[in-house]
What does this fold into?
Amino acid sequence: MKCVQWVKIVFCLILAALSVYLFVVSCGVEYPILIAREHVRFRQEMPTMDSWINSPFGKLKNYVFNVTNAEEFRSGRDKRLKVQEIGPIVYKIVGFNDILERNATNVKYSKHRYHSVEFLPEESVAPDVLNWTITSTNNVMLGAATKLKHMAPLSAFGFDATFMMEDMFITDTIYYFLWEFTRPLLQALSKMSNMRANVAVLHNALKDKEEIYTVNIGPERGIENFFRIETLNDEVIIREQLPHTKRYKPDQCPFNVTGALDNSLYPPFIQPDTPLDIVAIESCRVLPLTYQRQERYNGLDAFRYTLLKVNQTPPACLSTSYGIKLPDGMFDVSQCVINDAPSAFSMPHFYGSGYNWSEHYEGYTPNAEDHEPYILLEPVTGIPVMERYRFQSNIPIPDLRWFSSKLTRFSHMMIPSFWYEFEMGQLPGFVTALMWINVNVVQHMQPYCMGLFLLVAMWSVLKAIRVACGGIGYVGLFRKVCCGDMGTVTALETKFPAANLSLAVAVK
It folds into this structure.
């Protein structure tokens, strides 16, 4: 045989062997598991890596409340505050994750949530909304009264003298309340202590906080443990809540981050009963996700999880704020806000809380559609496809009967300062396409691929035999197999004498 024939034969046999190998391997593995094992290796070359590095990304929508009857409430003519919601006030948010260390079983990275913050005037309620003037409760005065009532009950008399020049309501621009909220007394105290003078909500909330996560990666740790946290800032307990560990048992305080997630990636093959907790760094706690239902989103079936349940009883260590018992549906966050001010988080408009807001307010419209925080998670890949992270910050007020009359009427109220919604941006098109393929193609392609491997193996073997036999066709190969080897193929020809078709016709 010629050299070319040998090359063809060897190539066909190699192709056949490879096809048989792939068929045998396919018998012992499941393609979705194989893809998932590669996904949890979290290699730099993974196509989803760029999307993860530049996360979180999306829009931060802020809402403030304008008090429309301040004079009537101050004079006692109105018993309830009338509030008008203003928003959204929208900012574009882009963060990034900086990988510090990595090996086959874990990765250590620093999360910067608010690397870029850009005001979006055209997507806000009005382009000049930051210049609008609103009237708000004097939350500096109310927070200080609440704090002193708990720490030094007899300070009420000196408190009134100290805040003599402060009004119970403040009128200024929305920009002032979001970015430059300060008072003369705060400025004076900040010079003598570590108290911060600027207590504006966005000014403090969007500051970069230290977040250094060490998380599990790689199939050796189990794909069900992918991206579960080992440590946060090299500790297993959230730093701000370390004092609580001395007074409460671990099951009473959701501060241990081990096994929780940072809400950027989740393990593959999530089931409705898979335990999922996320670190909510804004509230210095671990939040358990509660499965609600399945939803269709962008051509994918996703699981919907809520971050708070209606009338959810707060954990024991978060059930009070400066001695004030919090209603169900709220939890204390005073350890992680500016100046350790009395503060409790709830769902916006007090939705799902046990607080009877209608006793003190007019104007709130709590409902699940607008105010329930939730996450949509694609369960096969473990990638979030949509998130609406919604929370309202409130100041719980105790009984202020020993303070001045202007403060007494705020007794037992929950004073909301603002609420916000982080709306996750759309995933890049190539990430969505890969997810769709993983969910809708890889899940069903294994039997077809195994059949293809068998066909390729059979064709390759037959091709090698045909080349070895001199390039005969399939018919010739069939005859050789069925009739045996006959050596040189001889064609039999039968000849018949030609009939004399010419007839001599004599015409007489």
Remarks:
- The first strand starts at residue 57 and ends at 67.
- The two ends are 73 Å apart (CA to CA).
- Confidence is low (pLDDT under 50) at residues 486-494, 501-508.
